[in-house]
UniProtKB/TrEMBL annotation:
InterPro entries reported for this sequence: CB, DNA_brk_join_enz, Integrase-like_cat_sf, Integrase_catalytic, Integrase_recombinase_N, Integrase_SAM-like_N, Tyrosine_recombinase_XerCD
Domain Core-binding (CB): 13-123
Entry annotated with the keyword S-adenosyl-L-methionine: no
Name listed for the protein in its UniProt record: Integrase
Transmembrane intervals: none
Domain Tyr recombinase: residue ranges: 152-381
Domain of life: Bacteria
A Pfam family per the record: Phage_integrase
Organism: Saccharopolyspora taberi
Keyword list, A-Z: DNA integration, DNA recombination, DNA-binding
Keyword DNA-binding on entry: yes
Amino acid sequence: MTHEVALAGQPDKTTRERFAEFLRIYTSLNTRIAYATDLGIPLDWVPGYAPPDPRRRRGRTRRTEPTGLEWLTWCLRNGFASFADIRVEHVERWLDELARAGYRDATRARMLSAVSAFYRKYLMREGLAEHNPAALVDRSAQHLNRATGTPSQTAMWSFQACRALLLAAYLLAEHRRDGHRDRAMVEVLIGTGIRAEELVGVNLADYHRPTPGGPAALRVHGKGAKDRRVALAAPVADAVDAYLAQRVPASAPALPGHSGRPGSEPLFVTSTSTRVHVTHVRAVLRRLCGIFAPAPGARPPRARWLADLLTGPDAAFIATHLAPLRETIHPHSARHSYATHAIERGADPRQVQRDLGHAALATTEGYLHDADNLANSAAHELSPALHRGWLATD
């Protein structure tokens, strides 16, 4: 029995071609690999995938080795010739097997969401299934819903921690080779709440600031190939302009695992003129924490300029608020922080929802009111407040 049985009765395309069509919905290779892993699609079927170089040192990565309980493998093992034959009771039986095998509820919920997306975004649209059985699963009965009142697992940065990160990036911008780029990335991440994948996926043509010192906007390529425009407040746009003034044009194609559309010039590039990788975003945040709030026992800085910076008037404030984040800081916290602090400052929750491009927002809503969204964006209130007192925003 092979994977080819899964979409039997469709002679015009092979199963591999159909899975590739589904995965191409997602522009990020990392997202494609994640869906392929949960669904049980062989990784060599993933468009753009290249096996990792065994000679390169690799950090902690998500599991990609099959366990035999992935959705596709389970369907084949249970004799289903077509996904159209699957019913909700089959999905629930699969979830029960995952639970007995020791899969955590959060993992089962994620895998169920992958199955639901496969049906909703591909099988039903292609006429290969009439309904989405994953959508009929009682998530509460399967313990897949978080209890009401349970706090989010995503850590939120305090308002002062956001200020500290921005100030740290600002102070280092003139001293490091990629300082202006890193500062611009931190400004956009905190000032808009976009995802790290969206940040590195933006292109040079996506940035638009008609007049110097005026409002700016950035077109973001979100999940599910959904584009939206986000507003950049003046301090954020100024940081981007400072970076663009010394940016080296991209000259090399994107590497495997890098986001972005083929043939487009990335906004944020590395020292070798390639698109910045999503893992670099977290590395920048960790570096800011490590420099201003070093771990106990760390060597003192050798560079005189850095030693002076760490004894300057702002160093204590930065260290106080970045030290708690040093070991756990993650880019996604910027998204959570943006939403929380913007709403606390009186922003309309519906506008914040549009800013973040949440799935609950109707697909066309952001485009129908695009001009109003940019003018009323919470970014215009939040970003100047974060910079008030240490960076001129006039």
